[in-house]
């Protein structure tokens, strides 16, 4: 979770320096939903994250260097400079690349889960969706298919307060959990990493037992605007203050303390230094050769 937060902070610095080629879509305040759910998976499971689920990608082995190369549009990035955010995946790590078409990955993840069942493999697929994305047709179609077919799919609903600038009560009735379509549904404090991990572990076991998909609703909050170009003026400052007090990182550190554990006191400083060096390495990487513009596409 700390790596996610600090990596995004470094990206914001690069954005403000005019060095990134796209905007930055932060997960500030909701890192626990991505990290703790992904941590509950097995090594052979597959994830289909969204743009705010960078933490899940780190859990599955994606690196800060890959991230920075993407945002900086360098030739050695996963998409060769053709995409400028975390829209990259890795078959070897079980990561399906995020996409801007919100909801579209749910039918894809359901198809992956179907393949597991057809091949008799004890594996699950996990994907994420936000408040606004749960209003798309793909969300309903994909989750309904998984429910009817009793597939080993976990859909993590990141109820983070806003669909761009629209609060949930202006675009849905009954709350996010009401959209489960018959899937086993768990609602959990999305800023409590231990609770999220426990709920995701339960959901995964149900899937492995052949009891069908799970809809895990994590109640959290997006502490920044939709992206860095959004000043979040539509959010009540008092509401932000309330959620800032529920920050998942200090809460998890306090939980660790109650278990008799503690992170290394220099952890933040070490990670910041590593990320700075990694960003400099990415900045020194080559730009794409314009002659390769038509490579790797369907038609030219």
Summarize the structure.
With 300 residues, this protein is an alpha/beta fold. It has helices at 2-16, 31-39, 54-59, 64-71, 105-118, 137-149, 193-208, 237-244, 248-258, 267-283; strands spanning 46-48, 125-130, 153-159, 184-189, 214-219. The chain is built from 10 helices and 5 strands, in the order ααβαααβαββαβααα.
Structure explained in plain terms:
The chain has helices at residues 2-16, 31-39, 54-59, 64-71, 105-118, 137-149, 193-208, 237-244, 248-258, 267-283; strands at 46-48, 125-130, 153-159, 184-189, 214-219. It has 300 residues and is of the alpha/beta class. A 5-stranded parallel β-sheet has the order 1-2-3-5-4, with helices on both faces. Helix 7 (193-208) links the parallel strand 4 and strand 5 (214-219). Helix 1 (2-16) packs across helix 10 (267-283) and helix 4 packs across helix 10 (267-283). 43% of the residues are buried.
Question: Distance N terminus to C terminus?
Answer: 41 Å
User: What about the largest sheet?
Assistant: 5 strands, parallel
How many whole angstroms does the radius of gyration measure? 19 Å
**Inertia-based shape:** globular
Overall pLDDT confidence: 95
Question: Strand-and-helix sequence, N→C?
Answer: HHEHHHEHEEHEHHH
Strand content: 5-15%
The poorly predicted ranges are none
Q: How many strand elements?
A: 5
Strand-pairing-aware structural class:
alpha/beta
Strand order of the largest sheet: 1-2-3-5-4
Number of helices: 10
Specify the helix fraction band.
25-40%
């Amino acid at each position: 979770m700390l790596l996610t937060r600090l990596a995004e902070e470094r990206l914001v610095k690069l954005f403000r320096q005019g060095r990134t080629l796209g905007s930055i879509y932060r997960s500030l305040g909701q890192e626990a939903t991505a990290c703790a759910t992904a941590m509950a998976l097995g090594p052979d499971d597959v994830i289909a994250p969204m743009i705010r689920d960078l933490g899940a990608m780190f859990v599955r082995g994606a690196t800060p260097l890959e991230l920075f190369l993407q945002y900086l549009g360098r030739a050695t990035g996963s998409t060769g400079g053709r995409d400028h955010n975390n829209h990259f995946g890795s078959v070897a790590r079980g990561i399906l690349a995020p996409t801007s078409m919100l909801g579209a990955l749910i039918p894809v993840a359901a198809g992956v889960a179907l393949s597991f069942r057809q091949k008799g493999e004890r594996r699950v697929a996990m994907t994420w969706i936000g408040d606004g994305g749960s209003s798309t047709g793909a969300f309903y179609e994909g989750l309904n298919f998984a429910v009817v077919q009793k597939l080993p799919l976990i859909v993590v609903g990141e109820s983070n307060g806003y669909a761009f600038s629209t609060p949930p009560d202006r675009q849905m009735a009954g709350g996010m959990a009401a959209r489960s379509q018959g899937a086993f549904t768990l609602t959990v404090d999305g800023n409590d990493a231990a609770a999220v991990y426990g709920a995701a572990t339960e959901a995964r076991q149900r899937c492995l037992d052949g009891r069908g998909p799970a809809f895990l609703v994590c109640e959290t909050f997006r502490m920044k605007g939709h992206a860095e170009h959004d000043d979040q003026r539509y959010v009540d400052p008092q509401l932000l203050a309330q959620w800032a007090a529920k920050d998942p990182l200090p809460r998890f550190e306090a939980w660790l303390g109650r278990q008799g554990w503690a992170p290394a006191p220099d952890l933040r400083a070490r990670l910041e230094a590593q990320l700075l060096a990694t960003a400099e390495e990415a900045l020194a990487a080559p730009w794409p050769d314009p002659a390769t513009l038509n490579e790797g596409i369907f038609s030219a």
